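Help wanted!
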Amino acid sequence: MIAEVLAGKTESFHELIRPHERSVYLMALSLLHNEAEAEDAAQEAFIKAYRNLHRFRSESRFSTWLIAICLNEARAKLRRKQPALTDSIDDTADGGVTPAQLTDWREIPSETLERQEIRTLIRRALNALPLAYREVFVLRELEERNVQETAETLGITAASVKMRLHRARMMLQKQLAPQLATATPSRRRRFPWF
Amino acid sequence: MVLNCRHVWDYISGYLDNSLDEAIRASVEEHLAHCEICSAVLDSTRNILILTADDRVFELPLGYSERLHARLTQAMLEVPPQESS
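Answered by r_m:
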């Protein structure tokens, strides 16, 4: 399909990107935290991809290439919005994240996500992650990229990907586990008349 | 190898990704078998990852796709893609 677009059948580009619309938007949203800006960044990324399609090399996945373009677009927007933004992360520093220590965990089923407040809790926790951790988390968990693809997209080592992902997961557990446990009490009911 | 809770927390991600070497994995499992807190940390982390990755957490704005393709059509009219060199 890429060859078709480059040969002049430009309408094929619409079909080419359709499977990637969601993941590109999600990447932008995870950085920008604003739907309108994320949509704009996603549109810009797809337009850049179209204009630079001849530069795409088939040794990488098309989706990975698109995500990398989107990441650059969203980071540039972020820098314009917050010029002083620094998010330096030392992947070699000691000191893990201490998780929330509960004595038991009752599984929270996916149907719980029908509740707006639960979705909001999760979005807030994700948005609260440091940018460098959030980028890795979104690529690995939401975009389902492997460690190597994530490392290549972000220009970091595989060891850094693993460290950032681990810390992001522990930070989310620390924040979300107590909140979700409180917001979704056990379904077990006590019947006082027995 | 006997692990304490703090060690096990450091291995939670590797355990979930099945990327620990066999001896460490066995030690983690041995610890999990008798530690309620670490079992709850593992279960809650796994559960939270499933919830976080659900498509319902982040929904696409209404009309996103239509607006995207309309803007692309406009961009295509302005500049055709360059031929591969």
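OP: Thanks! One thing I noticed: Residues 91 and 163 of chain A are 6 Å apart (CA to CA).
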